[in-house]
Design brief:
The structure is a single chain. This protein is α+β, with helices and mostly antiparallel strands and 178 residues long. It is built from four helices and ten strands. The strands form three sheets. The protein has a five-stranded antiparallel sheet. A three-stranded antiparallel sheet has the order 8-9-10, with helices on one face. Strands 1-2 form a two-stranded antiparallel sheet. It is elongated.
């Protein structure tokens, strides 16, 4: 019962074949892969001209040290999207998550809490509720409700109404000069 395949390959021969593959064929394969990667790396070396060209391209792009602070970074999967502060309608919480809403109505998940955001955001952003910070430049209309609260209608593509809590009414009054 020493035969497995076609009557002439036994367990000893299979062990020899496996050992040969591990110690002969696998190292050859690894060497070939390393040589190919080194060759590719050699082909992608940049000349001084190429580096200068890429640097100028970076400088000409909209993101410089001066205006990078005009954007808020938001993670979307494996990329980071920069959203201009002028396009941010509000930051709001729902189910222990903070969301950023832009003028198109799209929501982005934010990796910060509202109290940290309140300290970091530009002065145009005000807190109007314990769960909402909004961009005061995007308020299009203010409605005073019967209960003493204000409803703020925001300038964006999709209708967006944000209710202000009574404790933040004074902030709203100073912004709209009541």
């Amino acid at each position: 019962m020493n035969t497995l395949i076609a009557g002439f390959i036994g367990p000893q021969e299979i062990i020899i074949i496996v050992v040969m593959m591990l110690f002969v064929i696998l190292p050859i394969f690894i060497v070939v892969v390393i040589i190919r990667s080194l060759k590719r790396r050699k082909d992608t070396k940049w000349s001084g001209e190429e580096v200068e060209k890429q640097f100028k391209k970076y400088q000409e792009s909209g993101f410089t040290k001066q205006n990078i602070r005009e954007y808020y970074p938001v993670k979307e999967g494996n990329k980071i999207t920069l959203i201009q502060f002028s396009e941010i309608v509000d930051f709001s919480t729902a189910n222990n998550f903070v969301f950023l809403t832009d003028v198109s109505g799209k929501d982005y998940l934010v990796d910060s809490n509202l109290s940290d955001l309140e300290n970091k955001l530009p002065k145009d952003f005000i807190r109007v509720h314990k769960s909402t910070i909004l961009n005061s430049k995007l308020i299009s209309e203010v409605k005073k409700m019967a209960n003493g609260r204000y409803d703020l209608i925001m300038k964006c593509e999709k209708p967006r109404i944000i209710s202000c809590s009574k404790s933040y009414n004074e902030k709203i009054k100073t912004i709209i000069d009541f």
